[in-house]
């Protein structure tokens, strides 16, 4: 079977129109964010919404919990939807909820968003104290049940400690190297070398704040960055995590950045006079545009097998290895 097309992070305002675009773009699987700052009950309400979509659109999407579901989605012309958290808020201070969330279908959890959490330090904090005692225990529990540790929004020391602490490879699902663009959210060469040496995966983000030249980033610049990353870390550890926020209203940025922890707006990677979503680059507006990335990777010299891996085959292997119990 031909290698699948997998986007390992989206936070779009999902709708039947987007589900149809996934099919038009040949997208076989998408990891979707179902929690930013939600507590457990609020996260369950989001799961209820997805269950209704699965019921209403069974020819377009299906629930994904294992790598085999990607293969089944391909065979039946659908897109498999995998769930993840961008913050550990749904588990609160209860480690037992890690297994419950896994039983509910959650397969990825970030140990932090931008702030300090009960588990680790986010990338916007002034001081990075690394994994907490609870963080080390939660990593071990995630390893046991088969939930992937995601450090996309975490600070340097915390990320390095998570890579070292985890008995299974971890993921940075949506970020880029900071040697290409020095956004706070992008990752250092030290982190990316440690991640990939340990068998982990990096998903390249197409969110403009993570791109060199922002919304004006060219396809060739992006693909040249991917080629340099392949030279440094190995193409087999690379994939796509677009961070596509299609159709979300600008008001959602406040929920993403602020949650409930402050009364003031935290502009994060945006600017004080424009806190909404930036325009996507011209070559990637929605799920129908993955072919542009494939063509760009051809242009910078990747061979077919490497491209198949970056476009989804590497994530499929990672799913095979990471989603089951240890």
What labels would you give this structure?
TIM Barrel, 11 helices, globular, alpha/beta, 39% helix, 326 residues, three-stranded parallel beta sheet
> Mean pLDDT, nearest integer?
96
Total helix count?
Answer: 11
Q: What is the ordering of alpha helices and beta strands?
A: EHEHEHEHEHEHEHEHEHHH
Q: Give the helix level as a range of percent.
A: 25-40%
The structural domain count equals 1
Strand content is 5-15%
CATH architecture: Alpha-Beta Barrel
Broad shape: globular
Category from helices, strands and their pairing: alpha/beta
Query: Mind telling me the CATH class?
Result: Alpha Beta
How many DSSP-defined strands?
9
CATH superfamily: Metal-dependent hydrolases
Biggest sheet descriptor: 6 strands, parallel
Tell me the radius of gyration: 18 Å
User: What is the CATH T-level topology?
Assistant: TIM Barrel
Distance from first to last alpha carbon: 27 Å
Tell me what the structure shows.
The chain is an alpha/beta fold and 326 residues long. The protein has a single domain (6-322), classed as Metal-dependent hydrolases (TIM Barrel), CATH 3.20.20. The protein contains eleven helices and nine strands. The strands form two sheets. Strands 1, 2, 3, 4, 5 and 6 form a six-stranded parallel beta sheet that branches. Strands 7-8-9 form a three-stranded parallel beta sheet. Helix 4 links the parallel strand 4 (79-85) and strand 5 (106-110). Helix 8 packs across helix 10 (290-299). The radius of gyration is 18 Å and the shape is globular. The model has no long low-confidence stretch (mean pLDDT 96).
């Amino acid at each position: 079977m031909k290698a699948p097309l997998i986007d390992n992070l989206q936070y779009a305002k999902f709708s039947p129109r987007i589900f149809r675009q996934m099919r038009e773009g040949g997208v076989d699987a998408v990891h979707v964010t179902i929690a930013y700052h939600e507590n457990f009950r609020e996260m369950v309400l989001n799961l209820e919404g997805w269950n209704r979509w699965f019921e209403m659109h069974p020819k377009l999407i299906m629930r994904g919990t294992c790598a085999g579901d990607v293969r089944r989605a391909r065979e039946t012309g659908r897109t498999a939807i995998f769930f993840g958290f961008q913050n550990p808020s749904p588990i609160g201070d209860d480690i037992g909820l890690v297994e419950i969330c896994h039983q509910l279908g959650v397969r990825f959890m970030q140990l932090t968003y931008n702030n300090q959490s009960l588990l680790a330090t986010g990338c916007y904090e002034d001081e990075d104290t690394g994994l907490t005692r609870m963080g080390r225990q939660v990593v071990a529990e995630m390893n046991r049940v088969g939930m992937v540790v995601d450090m996309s929004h975490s600070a340097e020391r915390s990320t390095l400690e998570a890579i070292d602490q985890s008995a299974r490879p971890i993921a940075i699902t949506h970020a880029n190297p900071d040697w290409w663009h020095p956004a706070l959210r992008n990752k250092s060469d030290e982190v990316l070398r440690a991640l990939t040496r340990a068998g982990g995966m990096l998903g390249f983000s197409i969110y403009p704040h993570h791109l060199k030249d922002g919304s004006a980033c060219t396809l060739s610049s992006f693909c040249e960055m991917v080629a340099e990353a392949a030279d440094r870390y190995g193409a087999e550890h690379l994939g796509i995590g677009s961070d596509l926020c299609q159709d979300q209203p600008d008001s959602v940025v406040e929920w993403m950045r602020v949650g409930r922890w402050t009364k003031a707006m935290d502009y994060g990677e945006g600017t004080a006079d424009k806190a909404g979503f930036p325009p996507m680059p011209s070559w990637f507006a929605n799920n129908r545009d993955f072919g542009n990335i494939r063509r760009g990777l051809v242009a910078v010299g990747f061979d077919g097998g490497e491209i198949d891996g970056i476009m989804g085959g590497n994530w499929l292997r990672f799913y095979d290895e990471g989603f089951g119990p240890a």
